[in-house]
Amino acid sequence: LEFEAGRSFDSAVASTTGGTVQLLPTSSLVSNGGSIVLKGTTQSATTGVAISGANVNAGAGNLTIAGESASSIGVDIAHSGASSVLTGGTVSITGSSSVNGPAGIQMFGSSVTGSNGLTVESLNSIVSLSATTLTASGGNLTVRSRGATTGAPPTVNYSLNVNSAVVGGPAPSTPSVISNTGAGTVTIDAQTTSHGSSFGSPSAFLLANSTISSAGGAISITGGGGTSGFVEGATGAQLASGARVTSSGNISITGTMGNQATTNSRGLAIDNGASVTSPGGNVTLSGTYNNPSSTSGKGAVINGYVSSGTSGSISVTGSATV
Predict the structure, then answer these.
(1) Which of 291, 249, 301, 295 is nearest to 270 (CA)?
(2) Can you list the positions of beta strands (E) in 166-216?
(3) Which of 120, 133, 126 minimizes the C-alpha distance to 175?
(4) Which residue of 1, 184, 227, 252 lies most exposed, with the fewest beta carbons within 10 A?
């Protein structure tokens, strides 16, 4: 099954106006193991691919979703009366927006499962995951962002924001969960390409009141700053209160900030109430802040809980040049 908007009806040539692929609440798109492809490209302030409270199930087949918008969200997967539930073998979700601010990929109150690997990626925009579950039961799981932040909270203040949210009713909020339940790895890679303001205290990667886990494969988390935008209080990779990173394998978390960040910036921050645990592997934490023109800053700030197993080790490295 393949649905593609943004091309003329009888030609392979891209249309001048583009179009949105949209699945409305309670709708279902199901194949008996065949691949499903959803592609939307818009030249206006509309979403490339919008899935709201719908079910998409490719079984063991591949599921590919690609959305691009000129000035809105590339791919928007949302809760609308019910969670959007997406399932496939190898699952790939890519999104982009051509202007700073709107997310390349935005997910809220949704669930995505890949039995043979899962990739969520925007190479020119931010990625926002709220109350969302990403699961790879086989293969590897990768989430990657390359976003320009604007200084306007909440979501556009981070290249990759993984957080909790209230879904469909009163509190408490529902955490996001990124999990590989098989033997594969989890890779988180977030880079802030630029920051449009001198305020906002952005993080390239923020994990708040949510969990990243793997059953046995390694977890690698990387967050870094861009090349422009002098902003105070910036952080490369931040685990805020309620954040949990856990694996029986090795865990590596690296945060960097360079000369685009100024006073009180940090490479890596693990806040009070956050935890990093590896019962059977090693934990490696590294933070670097390098801006000789800055008056203050830190490489790594560890206020949370970090542990490894009896046969594992913990390594913490911090470097600051101010």
Answers:
(1) 301
(2) 177-180, 186-195, 203-207, 211-214
(3) 133
(4) 227
- C-alpha to C-alpha distance for 322 and 308, rounded to whole angstroms: 32
Environment class of residue 227 by beta-carbon count within 10 Å: exposed (0-12), middle (13-18) or buried (19+)? Answer: exposed
Smallest CA-to-CA distance from 214 within 177, 256, 253 is with 177
Average pLDDT over the chain, rounded to an integer: 88
First to last CA, the chain: 55
Q: What is the DSSP string of 218-260?
A: -EEEEEE--SS--BTT-EEEEE-TT-EEEESS-EEEEEEE-TT
Residue 157 DSSP class = G
Q: Say which residue, 28 or 233, is predicted with more confidence.
A: 28
Mean pLDDT (whole number) for 268-289: 95
Whether 282 contacts 313, CB under 8 Å:
yes
What is the rounded CA–CA span in Å between residue 71 and residue 95?
Answer: 12
The DSSP call for residue 155 is G
User: Exposed (0-12), middle (13-18) or buried (19+): which is 149, by Cβ within 10 Å?
Assistant: buried
**Do 71 and 18 meet the contact criterion of CB atoms below 8 Å apart?**
no
Structure tokens at 48: 């490339």
Residue in 71, 172, 184 with CA at minimum distance from that of residue 125: 71
Mean pLDDT of 294-315: 89
* Predicted pLDDT of residue 273: 98
The percent of the chain in helix, strand and coil, each rounded to the nearest 5, is 0, 55, 45
| Residue 100 pLDDT level (bands cut at 50, 70, 90) | low
Is 147 in contact with 193 (CB distance < 8 Å)? Answer: yes
Q: Rg (Cα) of the chain, in Å, rounded?
A: 20
